Amino acid sequence: MKKWLLIAMLMFAANVDVKAQGCAVCTKTAAGMDDKSARGLNGGILYLAMLPISIIGTVTFIWWRKNKASI
Predict the structure, then answer these.
(1) Residue 41 contacts residue 29 (beta carbons within 8 Å)
(2) Cβ(14)–Cβ(29) under 8 Å?
């Protein structure tokens, strides 16, 4: 099972094109801005992404700890 999980994670990590794509509107908006405003836009996107990422990370960590204890 661990072998297949590792293979799946490596396959997703190797597929950079899918993860690196952004919203077309955000890309065009950032291209028309100066450097400081574009950094602010990127910071806002990261700020809004922190809550879902932390929730998913917490749930994954709790799931991992419970499965690790049962093995």
Answers:
(1) yes
(2) no
Nearest to 49 by CA among 60, 59, 41: 41
pTM for the structure as a whole:
0.51
Are 30 and 41 contacting, i.e. CB atoms less than 8 angstroms apart? Answer: yes
| 26, 45 Cβ separation under 8 angstroms | yes
Cα separation of the two ends of the chain: 13
pLDDT, tens digit, 9 for 90 and up, residues 34-46: 888 888 888 888 8
Structure tokens at 69: 């204890």
Return the structure tokens found at 43: 């910071």
Q: Are 31 and 41 spatial neighbours (Cβ–Cβ below 8 Å)?
A: no
Rounded CA gap, 10 and 2, in Å?
12
pLDDT at residue 53 is higher than 80: yes
